[in-house]
Design goal:
Radius of gyration: 23 Å
Strand order of the largest sheet: 1-2-3
Oligomer: single chain
Number of helices: 2
Order of helices and strands: HHEEEEE
Strand content: 35-45%
Helix content: 25-40%
Structural class: alpha+beta
Shape: elongated
Length: 139
């Protein structure tokens, strides 16, 4: 999905650059078109990466509580050293708590969910099959 939207953003920005070039009477250089496309695609990818946590959080059912989140840097995304992005979070389902009373204390049974953002890479093997490799952020 991100690739499709990123491509669309690149095409739209290239169209804007073409329009600007035409309106300027071709005084703007030709290289402005791929620069606009590249910047738009990069901008959308950065937006998509940083909005992942908010999007996933909005998809949780009512009564889910985020109890922790992890922010990390990625070396091939140098801007994450300045502003790390959320790569994982843990949620407790408060709708399905089961309480057990004992002599000394009250025990609560709960469901704990962990969501991680991983990178999936498809590597072709042979003619008709492929393997999916899941990479962690720290690789």
């Amino acid at each position: 999905m991100a690739f499709d939207c990123s491509s669309f953003a690149g095409l739209a920005a290239a169209g804007i650059a073409l329009l600007l070039r035409k309106l300027s009477g071709r005084r703007l250089p030709k290289w402005i078109i791929p620069v606009f496309a590249g910047l738009a695609m990069l901008g959308y990818q950065i937006y998509y990466e940083y909005s992942w946590f908010d999007h996933q959080q909005s998809r949780q059912p009512e009564g889910s509580v985020v109890i922790s989140s992890e922010r990390d840097e990625v070396f091939w995304r140098p801007w994450t050293y300045y502003y790390p992005m959320t790569v994982a979070f843990t949620v407790v389902d408060t709708n399905n708590l089961i309480t057990h009373d004992t002599e000394d204390a009250t025990l609560v049974e709960f469901m704990l969910y962990r969501f991680e953002k991983n990178i999936l890479i498809m590597l072709p093997i042979g003619h008709m099959c492929s393997i999916v490799i899941r990479l962690k952020w720290y690789l």
